[in-house]
Amino acid sequence: MRALVFDRSLELHGDYPDPVARPGESIVRVSVAGICGTDLEIARGYMQYHGVPGHEFAGRVVESQNPALRGKRVVGEINAGCGRCAACSAGLARHCPNRTVLGILGRDGAFAEYLKLPDVNLIPIPDSITDDVAVFVEPLAAAYEIFEQTHLARNQTIVVLGDGRLGALVALALKGEKYLPIVAGHHREKLAQMARLGLETAEESALRDKFDVVIDCSGSESGFRRAIELVRPRGRIILKSTAAAAAELNLAPIVVNEITVIGSRCGRFQPALDALTAGKIDPRPLIDHTFTLEEGMAAFEAAKNPLNFKVLLSAT
Amino acid sequence: MRALVFDRSLELHGDYPDPVARPGESIVRVSVAGICGTDLEIARGYMQYHGVPGHEFAGRVVESQNPALRGKRVVGEINAGCGRCAACSAGLARHCPNRTVLGILGRDGAFAEYLKLPDVNLIPIPDSITDDVAVFVEPLAAAYEIFEQTHLARNQTIVVLGDGRLGALVALALKGEKYLPIVAGHHREKLAQMARLGLETAEESALRDKFDVVIDCSGSESGFRRAIELVRPRGRIILKSTAAAAAELNLAPIVVNEITVIGSRCGRFQPALDALTAGKIDPRPLIDHTFTLEEGMAAFEAAKNPLNFKVLLSAT
Fold this sequence. Notes:
six-stranded parallel sheet
């Protein structure tokens, strides 16, 4: 099959081996895949990953032992657990210590014609949402994870640090759930795009108030430090960015001001899929370009442009 | 009056000015005061504090406009808020941005014959508990603060990092409330003392399991890093120590493993006082030495000895 493969560098292969399903796994033909920040990091060597990257996708099941899945349009949870450990038993395969992760860890991903995933990871999608909407379920699930982890009151003040992909989705999810977040960033053009999506925006350096909740989606080393400055005593920081700078970070204010810091990563797909199906969020204005798999290198270049929110790869 | 005064160095003054109560304040004659880690830091220049240190005390009200307080044995909340800001309005004077703090920030403390505090800070203590028990209300309140901030289930595994003063009190509070913490430290003699108090102990470097909850009372720069290693995915770290090392600290596991970090400092006095009154905790075995105010310098030297849990100053 055709696939984008990372092995020291990213290359298009015309004859990459088709995935072979093991018992309990299905084969999916990818229709659309999204490029996210993690893919760009993988293309720079992150996770020492070798293989096909890509973990945001929508597609159709073309081979399955499970009649409920055969022929269905699906999205797929990206963490495949061992099914036997304490985390898996608690329904938290995404914290399984032995997990593989689609396109990130030990499992070829979605920048290819086909991929394989365990049947339990696949979630059929309604006819009412198109593939270019469904492809947002994975990144949006990371936004919805916040609601699974902590209760936010509707009258709390919330600032989202970061005007990039994740910041936009987190802010749209909050808005879709009737919160009133402020998106704070450094890029005037991106903040203008956010404003066109109906989001309240602010120049980050101009923020003076203290907020009940600060959500760090900055992806930058200074994000956590800025979050500590912006959160009120007894407030919460939700840490979505793994780039937090350790150097020169003074954690004493966390203790003195009794801040709660909540690390937050992937989420369950269903709440995000439900929100998209209900029309609470329309992510399509975030799509800047759609490339074919053959144009994969150009697609990655486009995804690197900080002014682009979302670049898609279409396998058809 | 006689007082220990810090101004570049710690000295005993025989003629330090008596405190003068402002409206709404009372004067307390100190009977017993405890030396804690913060006092040792202040004696090294922490907080750029100048004046009388000391914030753990029990005493008797000798001057007050409030008849409910006059002549009463009391302990006192150490944070004096402005009474007007959002934090004070929410009952959180200990997070008031304009607060003074007894013996720590802008207000002379308890290593003296007399101190003054707002009436609202003073809490009468029952006759059934002695001064050398009541003096533990302040540090124990910091332990009870944990229960105010987060819900711990009785069947969760809890490790307390640190075999010092705070670690001992946190562990005793947990044990008093029917939890089963393990105290982990480096000092064999101190762990043996903890074991004599009925606490389960462990050599920290020997810990291999992952815990639901890790409480960092280490006071050491490596405590937070070790806490990140010891907590299970989706678990909680309660950060009681402000000494966390920023350098070389990788925060990515907080996000990837979705750890919640809860900064925790001072607490309300009442739950701690109630626990002492009910006999849930007997802190007296933690007292190593009691010195007079005149022996203050020797008392500080004794408090620096890491094998000592608690050194008291008696004003009488």
